[in-house]
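Weekend entry, working from home. Most of the wet-lab plans are on hold until the incubator is repaired, so I used the time to fold the two sequences that have been sitting in the queue since the last round of cloning. Logging both here for the record. First:
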Amino acid sequence: MDADVLHRLNEARTARRAVVLVKNLKTGKDSLVFEGETVADDLPGDLIGEAFRTGRGKLSESEDLFVSAYLPPPKLIIIGAVHISQALAPMATMAGLDPVIIDPRTAFATPERFPETTVMAEWPQDCLPGLGLDAYTAVATLTHDPKIDDPALTVALEAGCFYVGALGSRKTHARRIERLTDAGVAADGPSSIKAPIGLSIGAATPSEIAVAVLAEIIAALRQRPDAAA
């Protein structure tokens, strides 16, 4: 691999910027396509778009080009050390997401309740800015407490997270939208929140709700619009 290409690739990975490497197997030439860039006419736009969505490499039908994806590891920020979170965190880990649980209520946010998961007993507005939320971060707010959930939703929307979901009924969410709008959140921000959170599968127990939430997050991650034009 060309030294300049390798340097740019490493820079992108350090900055958590998605990039696809296209190698011409006949000439040995390497090309990089960053998420959001226009794809050159001589590169396979369909394979590049698929690579951004799936994170998987693929050989072109002509077998001249091999496309490799380098996507940032997805993160899941769970607001609320609740029963749903106890099921959601280990399932998220198994699905390849890196979960972090945030809840200022120290009685709930304990390592004993969430083994092998990072737990932060802090207010979301205090710790979220330091966690590097980005387009490969999902945020699920589960406390049902506006004092905890609303600041987290505001930060997540401003950061452009690929998924933002909130627990609560449609009536609860309508009041939530009013609060966020009154607080100055951009008009299109609250409307992008997934609420009631999770796919509509009739989930009733905390574990079932966790399954519905994780499925919705995976759908948002893998069904992203084409990342390259």
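Second, folded right after the first finished:
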Amino acid sequence: MNGGRLLDISQRLRPALPVWPGDVAVAVDVTAAVSAGSSVTLHRLTVSTQAGTHAECSRHVRDDAPALDELALSAFLGECEVRDVRAARERVLPADVLDRLPARVERVLLRTLQHSDWERWPEGFTALAPELIDALAARGCRLIGTDAPSIDPQTCTALRSHHAAHRAGMAILEGLVLDHITEGRYELIALPLPVTGIEATPVRAVLREFM
């Protein structure tokens, strides 16, 4: 689109990658190997749909919502705004970021963690307030992204921010790596895998700088 530098904002899927407590751990197993006499090397990957950097839709919290493969790919591809909200506590509120965003915005990525390439599970991460989701939806936002593992707090079962995203028809990216990203406008490329009927898939998310 513009020839700018590509910036990888994805977690590395690896067996040591922390996952949501109780979720399936990442596992990589060799099922055939050239070194063992096979004509090819093959691996089996075991991974949760929510592992690492992943795209997500409302099927995560509502059985009547469209599956991820039914969403328009355009939600995950196009101009986005990245903002640092590490000063926020517990939840990112509209007052923490709205005055630093355009009046109309389609995609917003928020840095909440000091270090988002996890070596251990980020206990007590900062979530996003449902009021923020509503305010972004009013500005035309189609996708919200965070470097935290969820837009809702870890101990929250009501999942109010997820339900706010559902009402707005807003796609979600979670588990981004934004430590090395400067605030500003970029092109986002974070296409989900075409797996039918599920609520999320890991993605290779990148930002392209504008020239």
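Plan for Monday: verify the second prediction. The first strand starts at residue 6 and ends at 8.
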